[in-house]
Amino acid sequence: MSSSIPSHVDDLFAIVMAGGSGTRFWPASRAARPKQFLALGGQRSLIAQTVDRLSSLVPIERVLVVTAKDQAALVREHLPELPEENVLAEPCARNTAACVAWAALEVERRAPDSLQLVCPADHVIAPVEKFAATVRAACDAARALGGLFTFGVRPTHPATGYGYIEAGEVQTTVDGHEVHAVARFVEKPDRARAEEFLATGRFLWNAGIFAWRTRDVLAGLDAHANEIVTPLRAVVRGEKSVDTVYPEVPKAPVDVALMERATDVRTVPIDYTWSDVGSWSALEELNAADAAGNRTNFATDDARLVAVDSTGCIVHAEADEVVALVGVDDLVVVRAGDATLVCPKGRDQDVRAVVERLKDAGGRFL
Predict the structure, then answer these.
(1) Are 186 and 166 in contact (CB under 8 A)?
(2) CA geometry: angle at 334 spanning 331 and 337, to 5°?
(3) CA 36 to chain centre
(4) How far apart are CA 84 and CA 301, in angstroms?
(5) Domain 12-275: homologous superfamily in CATH
(6) pLDDT confidence of 41, banded at 50, 70, 90?
(7) 356, HSE (Cβ side, Cα atoms, 13 Å)
């Protein structure tokens, strides 16, 4: 291997959380193919992009994917090189704390003295080299200091859709990357509070990406989420089936169950492109605009947009088809399978209300 190419982090495992339903991306995201399996912001699916991004850090043999049981086949389809035993299939949704705990125990079974990187399957991050550099810095700091690490995005505007991290004092610097103590976590603020956070320069968006030594995360779970991690030990030891245990595990996000309760928490600020691709409007950041200011995210090379006196629109299509716009501005237009979505860009978060109405009507088209 060339000395100019960074080697894998020898003691690192990567855990990819891929169990989400992605309702805000209906109608492209459906129960049979949620958001993480869509090609958004690239030619490959989000989950494939995520694993590609990890390839300079860990070999595929040390990548674990936690997903819903009915999505396990999709994971294998999109990641054919992933070992079958590295897919942890949840029989029911229990949020991210159970996901993190189960994966951490499985890593402990294989390599108790290891490090772990935990990341969602549906983010877009670039450039990959900068991402890898911050992960390496966090790993070095985790070995030296212990504790739990989270990645914080330097905010560019007063966003109200993200949780925030207040960064405290700088505890160390690794290869130019500052490692701060975490003063506190703050849930999604209103606009006025978000503007206050931005003005202080101390607050970061919570990227939902974590790094830690295996023994540190399990110690934290034992101390703060024992009711989640203890039942799962019986699964990893082979004493009980996951189908029996998982439905009884409490539902909780890992931020609430662990990170907000633990005291030894640190953050590594990041300043490269990061998007959780939280709604259709996020495609504005991920796809270049044409001469009229419209952006397309087409799954095939033969799909085509014809825009007449129309600007600022976001168009997604999955088949070899034409989408035509006449005299409209700032719309989201999505063609996927047997459904079409049209809404103003400012209302794209309300797609979830459509999903709820379809559920109430019997669930067809979901």
Answers:
(1) yes
(2) 165
(3) 9
(4) 32
(5) Spore Coat Polysaccharide Biosynthesis Protein SpsA; Chain A (3.90.550.10)
(6) confident
(7) 5
Tens-digit pLDDT profile for residues 294-353: 999 988 888 899 999 999 999 999 889 999 999 999 999 999 989 999 999 989 888 989
pLDDT surpassing 50 at residue 82 = yes
One-letter identity of residue 243: D
- The residue to which tokens 């633990």 are assigned: 262
Question: What pLDDT was estimated at residue 5?
Answer: 57
Residue 7, pLDDT above cutoff 90: no
Segments of the chain assigned to CATH 3.90.550.10: 12-275
What dihedral angle (degrees, nearest 10) is formed by the CA atoms of 113, 106, 82, 133? Answer: -40
248, burial (CB in 10 Å: exposed 0-12, middle 13-18, buried 19+):
exposed
**193-213 per-position pLDDT tens digit:** 999 999 999 999 999 999 999
| Residue 3 pLDDT greater than 60, yes or no | no
Average pLDDT over residues 271-287: 89
- The confidence score (pLDDT) of residue 300 equals 83
Give the tokens for residue 294. 């419209």
Residue with the two structure tokens 């294998």: 76
